[in-house]
Each structure stands twice: as C-alpha cells, then as structure tokens.
Design a protein that fits this description.
Layout: E1 2-4, E2 27-30, E3 37-38, H1 41-47, E4 59-62, E5 68-70, E6 85-87, E7 92-94, H2 99-103, H3 105-115, H4 119-124, H5 131-136
Antiparallel strand pairs: 1-6, 2-3, 2-4, 4-5, 6-7
Domain CHY-type: 13-80
GO molecular function, one term: zinc ion binding
Protein name: Ring finger and CHY zinc finger domain containing 1, isoform CRA_d
C-alpha cells in the first residue's frame, strides 16, 4: 500500500541534496537483477544493459547508516525517513508525495478523467496486476 509518514521517532535526513535527478530519497534500491545499488530504477536502466523491475525490489540501503534491509519507509537502524511518499508494491520513495502527480499531470488526469478514476485514487490503488496503474506510472 502507499503510505505517508510523520510518525513519532522518525528522523528526517539532513537537509540538502540526496537521491538523484529523478527522486529525492534517503535510500538506494538493491536491484534484484544484478545485486547493484542504485538511487532509482531510471538511474539503473541508464547504466545497465537491462531494466530494473521495481515490483521485484526487496531490499534498500539507508544513505545515512548504510544498513541493507528489507524495503520499507524508514530505516530499521537509524529511523531515517526514506521518503514522505512510499509505495510498498512498486517501491517508489520520494520526499514529495505530490511528485507522482507532477511527473505526468496531463496523462494521469486525462487517463483518470476518461475512466472516471480521480488521480488520488490511482495513487492509493497501486496494486500489482491493475493494468491502468502500470500504464500511468510507467516512468515513475
């Protein structure tokens, strides 16, 4: 499920640039296809001769304490928040939960309007196997 967090005991990472040009996040994804660490699947795909399937990501590494752990919204060792927005199905982490809507606003709104699904519902209904989510979030 998608989540947003500002829970007690959750520590925000130090201010400043983190992540990559695509996403502001405090973790690296461990690519199950090659066991390499990348900030996002787009960075992975740029540097490798194969594509990272974000639905198969199982582990992340905290950029603060470097602990490798199962994919989740906060670090189990240092409590760093990896992203304000996190989807446990497609493993999208981002500082700004509005980023997903900003990336392809026309496409999301237009597609949602045609199918009578509000954009927020698309984000909150990110379940593997629902084809409209795969098309809408293809470049996330």
């Amino acid at each position: 499920m998608a989540a947003t967090a500002q829970e007690d005991g959750v520590r925000s990472p130090a201010p400043g640039p983190r992540g990559c040009e695509h996403y502001d996040r405090a973790c690296l994804l461990k690519a199950p296809c090659c066991d390499k660490l990348y900030t996002c699947r787009l960075c992975h795909d740029t540097h490798e001769d194969h594509q990272l399937d974000r639905f198969k990501v199982k582990e992340v590494q905290c950029i603060n304490c470097e602990k490798l752990q199962h994919a989740q919204q906060t670090c189990e060792d240092c409590s760093t928040l990896f992203g304000e927005y996190y989807c446990s199905i497609c493993h999208l982490f981002d500082k700004d939960k509005k980023h997903v809507l900003k990336m392809f606003p026309g496409r999301i709104v237009q597609y949602a309007w045609r199918t009578f699904i509000p954009p927020v519902s698309l984000l909150m209904s990110c379940h593997a196997g629902i084809s409209y989510i795969e098309r809408v979030m293809k470049k996330c």
